[in-house]
Every structure is written in structure tokens, then in C-alpha cells.
Amino acid sequence: MNVRQLDLINILLTSKxxxxxxxxxxxxxxxxxxxxRNDLKYAADLFKKHSTIQLNRxxxxxxxxxxxxxxxxxxxxxxxxxxxxxxDERIFDMTYELLTAVNPLTLQHFSDQHFTNRTSIQKxxxxxxxxxxxxxxxxxxxxxxxxxLKAEETKRRSAIAHxxxxxxxxxxxxxxxxxxxxxxxxxxxxxxxxxxFTDETLDRLxxxxxxxxxxxxxxxxxxxxxxxSKITEQVEYDQALQxxxxxxxxxxxxxxxxxxxxxxxxxISGKKLTIGKxxxxxxxxxxxxxxxxxxxxxxxxxxxxxxLFQGLSIHLQPVLNRLSYQLPIKNPLLTEIKNKYPYxxxxxxxxxxxxxxxxxxxxxxxxxxYIVLHFQASVExxxxxxxxxxxxxxxxHLGIGMSHLLRSKIERQLPDLxxxxxxxxxxxHNYLADDLDLIISTVELPDMPIQHIVISPxxxxxxxxxxxxxxxxxxxxxxxxxxYATLLHFIDKNSIFLHLDVEHxxxxxxxxxxSLYKQGFVQKEFIHTAVLRERTSATSxxxxxxxxxxxxxxxxxxxxxxxxxxxxxxxxxxxVSLVFLLAVVDEDSQVTKRLFNxxxxxxxxxxxxxxxxxxNNTSAFxxxxxx
Length: 627
Prior knowledge:
By secondary structure, this protein is of the alpha/beta class. Helices cover 55% and strands 12% of the residues. It is built from 26 helices and 13 strands. The protein has helices spanning 3-14, 22-29, 33-50, 69-84, 87-100, 107-114, 118-132, 153-165, 170-177, 180-193, 199-217, 235-251, 257-269, 281-298, 306-325, 334-340, 342-359, 365-383, 400-413, 461-471, 485-490, 505-518, 525-536, 589-602, 606-613, 618-626; strands at 54-58, 62-66, 138-142, 146-150, 390-395, 417-423, 438-441, 452-454, 491-500, 540-542, 545-546, 559-571, 574-583. A hairpin with a 3-residue loop joins strand 3 and strand 4.
């Protein structure tokens, strides 16, 4: 349905006139009478499909509607909602319908459902197909059949869960997609079990169970070819059975054994608030090696941080289970973490490369980003100021890694605060009786009797200023400086390429690394490690900038190669036009961190980035960075 047709239908439904002339409608909508007659056929079909309203024609008088007033109001409301609905909301609804459809769906079905034309629907399907690709789900469109998905049931459910959990208004989307009473029931039985999970995990568990129930009702259960015999010995299997006993009578269905096993896998793989002694030598060796490698790469003493060791142990135990059961999760803060902590993200990627070689543990970017938070929290702890006065607690819904990082940053930036504890929202009632001055939360806390403020989990400069104003206290200033001395010091003037015409980021990385090799900055193997690093995880940091780099062991002396691209190219999930290939020796971690801080700060200067990418010679480019 186009805008003109939508306007015509609104006129028909709202007009106070008994009859409407085709000529008058054509003049009002600024089109021909023939166009109006064609649109009236479309309107008649729409009325017939969605209501009891009939569109009639009376020669010499015009067109008129017959039908209930109630149907008119309902259609007007439906048309209004779809007129106002943004494209991303339509794509959200279409994606969910495809993921849960039993039979193929036609383009006309989507066109009628969302009151838009088939061309727009086809464009939406292209976006959906791209979104589904990481889940190994293929979208197919066949003539005379329709649109359908080819996917394993586990992949399909993973995509549904991710669709719901990453929606802008997650709670509203759950209620929008599933009956409200079902969501409330599942939430209540999970709370009754008293699981020691993070709020994030509890939310995902609700979503998983609701999806499980819907798919069983659709006769699409999980199929596990070889039943996991050891799973029945786990305490999580008994917990899954208990949940199933409560679910079955309420929903009047029988849950297959394979679904009980799959539910137990989710419970085993959930992020826990604490863990006891695991007696897992593999996990202990993995954490010890990861910390040792990070200490070697960054020259930061992570080895003596017991909180880091404990936090990583708590975090990595369910990570290993998720890898084992192929239950990947999506990190909603992945892009923000990569852009805010590019240095630490890069170091963790390099450290995990060795863990991959030693332990065959391969982590996706989403998991890597969570690990970055643990190491960044350790850095913040080493900087923190000991003088603290006001008492506060932090409510964080994203798990122990984020909690530690948030606590450390707040304590360092705001020395007048004493953070008593970091807790989940579910544990908040246990602390309300304490002598608290303030509650700092990453989620809304309605009807809270104690002063509280909501901040971003990453606690950026805006949050810091907001919190300072809120508590009327002078905190420490941030350490960003508007100069690029370190960056300028390392840039090799002979390795600056202006208006480079390439199609793929690997070409850029190889060309820049080769230039540094020819200038004597790196060994030849550095070229390979730089490209390999880029294949592992895209190094874009936002604002059209990428910072590829290779293994430090292949660096002979520090240098940076630069490329300004003729046209922005795909760099992971972003478009990039300015590239800095870094080859900086790791003898002085402070120098490396200053460099990454300057690059991070540069990514926030949109006007300067635009100016840099427009320069036509090397001297002008460097001059922009000195001003």
C-alpha cells in the first residue's frame, strides 16, 4: 500500500459525506480519475479481507461504504499504527513471523499484513536475510511457493531469543510476541526456584522457555540425535525437571525428554553470580594462562589480582559449557566495548590466540567483549583512590564482569563514594535497610525510597558528570587529552596512502603491513599475523576508523602505516574510510595505552576525521593532527 492509497482509505473511512465523487477524490489526491478507480479496487479488497465493510458505487452519485462503525474505528486504528510504525519495527515483526512460521509466507501476505508495497517488503527481506546469516539460517524465496527459512531448530530458537533480547524495548517485545499471562507465569516459577543467575541470564531463561513452549505447540521440538547420558547426573537436570513439572499442567502439554535436556544445557550454561570450588583443573589452567599472557602483552601486573582470577573463573565456566552445547549468546554492548576499550580488546584477542593453540578454546567476539571488562576492571582497581566517604551500592544487570568494571571506574572517578556492594536487581531488597546515601543502577528502579540514579553500564563521561551533579560532589577529571603526540611520533611518512581504491579490508591490511615490512619496521611474518588478526575480529572502532595490528613479536621497531580510502568499505559491521595499521613494540605498555587512548579520542572527533579524509598530500594530513 502506498501513501496515496492509504490517504484514500482514510478519506473513505472518515468522510461525513454520504457519497464521494471519483472526480473530487482525484482532485484532492492530485491524481487521475483512472488512478482513483484502480485504488478503489485495492481498497475494496482490503475492506473485504480485514472487516465487514463493503465499498459500493451508485451511478450518478458516487462511491459509499456500508458497514459497522466499530469496523471503521478498528481499521482506522490499524492503519494509523502501521503508518507510524518505523521500518525496523516492521522488520522485527516480519523476522519473528518467519522464524515461527510453519508454512511459507507470500510477499502479498507481508504486503497486506503491514500495509505496504511488495518492493518495500523485498528490501526488508534482504535486511532480514543478512541478519539471519550469523545464525546459519538461510532465507529462500521461491516463485509460487513464498518465503521460508532453512534452519536447524536450535539455530532457529537462538535467533528468536536474540531477536527478542536485543530489541530496543525488550519487555514490551516479549509481551508483544507472547501472551502476557504466559510470560508472567514462567517468570514467577523461575523466581521461585531461587537460581543464583545474573539478571541477564534470568531474562534469557524466561525467553527460552516461552519459545520452547511455542515451538512444542507448533510441533517443532528440539531433536538431540544422541542423548547426553551424563546430563541426568547433573543438578541442573533435576532443576529442569522441576520446571517442567510446573510448566506441563499450566500449558496442558507434554514436554519431550530432548527438551528437558536442552533446558538443562541452558541452566548449566547460564552466567552465575558466584560459584564454589569447581575442581576443574582445565578451567584453572585456562584462566592462569590467560592472565599470564595478558600480563606479558600489556606489562600490567594482572597475576596478583585475586579478584580478576575469581571473576574470570566465574565467567568462563558457563562460557565453556556454552561452547560445549553450542549455545552462543549475543553481547548487547559489543560495539560499545570495542570502541571504548580498543587497546584492551586487542590485547585479549591476542592472548586468546595462544589459549586457542593450547586449549582449543575459540571464542566469538561477543564472549571476548565480556572478558575485556574483567581485565579493564582490574586496570581500574589498580588506579583507584582509597579515600572514600559516601556510602552507595551498585545495581548492575549484566553480570560480575561488568559489575567489577563499573565499581572500579566509579571508585576511581568519584573518591567521595564508598561502594558497599555490587548486586543484581533481585537482591536489592536485602540492602534497603542499610545506611545508604545513594543507589547507582544500570536499570530503572521504580518506587525506590532511597535516592538513586540510572547510568550506562559503561559509565561514560556524560554519566560521570550526571552522577557528580546528582551527589553534588567534586570527582576526578577524566584523562582524555586533545592531542595526538604519540600517534604523530609513530606514523611513518613513507607509509601513508591517500585515496586508496580497494574493495576489501584484508587488502588494506596486507598493503599497509607490507609497507612497514619494506621500511624495516616489522618482520615478514607480521604481515600474515596482521591479516589473521583481522580475520579473527574486525578492528573498526567507530566513526569510520579501523586500527588493524599484528602480533607484537614480529615488530622490530615501532611504526604506524595509514590509509585514507577513496570510498568507505565494509569493515565488519561498520563502514571505514581511515585506517591506522599499528606496529608498536610492547616494551612500554603506557606508551601503547596512550596511543590507543588518542585513537579512541580521535574516533569522537567527527569534524577532524572528515578533514583528515579530504587531504590530498601527506604534509597536509599530518598538519591536521598537529593543530
